[in-house]
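My main concern about presentation is that the manuscript never shows what a single data entry looks like. An entry of this sort, consisting of the sequence and the corresponding C-alpha cells, reads as follows:
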Amino acid sequence: MVGGVGRMGGLPGDGRAVGSLVEAARRAEEFGRLLTRDLRVGEVMRFTNYYYVELEEASGAKATEVLVDPASGAVQLEFGPAMMWNTRYGMMTAGTPDTTAQVDPGRARDLANRWLTARDSGSTADEPETFPGYDTLHVSRAGRVEGCCPCTRRPAASGTTHGMDGCSTCARDHFR
C-alpha cells in the first residue's frame, strides 16, 4: 500500500454525485495525494460513464490516469493501461524500468491510426501523451475527442504492440 491506498485500490465514493469537471478534479486530486504528495490534476474530460483525469508529477510529467464515477465519486486507476502498463503507479512497478521502451510515441500514433483505419471508424489518433511505460492517444473525429487509445511501449512476443486492443473498448465511449 502507498499512503493508505493500494496501488490497485481506489478512493471509495463519498456518497455524493460528481456533476462537474471541477468536482471530478477535486476527487482525483484527493486520490493522487494518497498515491504520493507530488501528484496534481492535469486534463479532465467527461465521458458517458465516467470522468477521465490525468494526474501529473510536480515536474509536469504525466504520472497516471484515473476514472471518477459520477454517481458515487469513487476514484480508481484507469482499468487497462494505467493499471497494467504503468511502470511507476500500476502493477508493473517492481523491477520494471521505463528505459526498456521499444515502441516510440510516433510509432504508437501510426499503430493507432492503422487500427482505427482498419475498422473504418472515421476517427484519428492525436499526438501521444507519454505516461510511465505506455502512451495514451486521444481519438478524435471532426476535431472532437471521443475516446482514448492506449499503446504499451513494449512489443508483444509477436513483435506487434498489445495496446491496440484497448481501442475497441475506449474509442467508442463518446462524450455525454
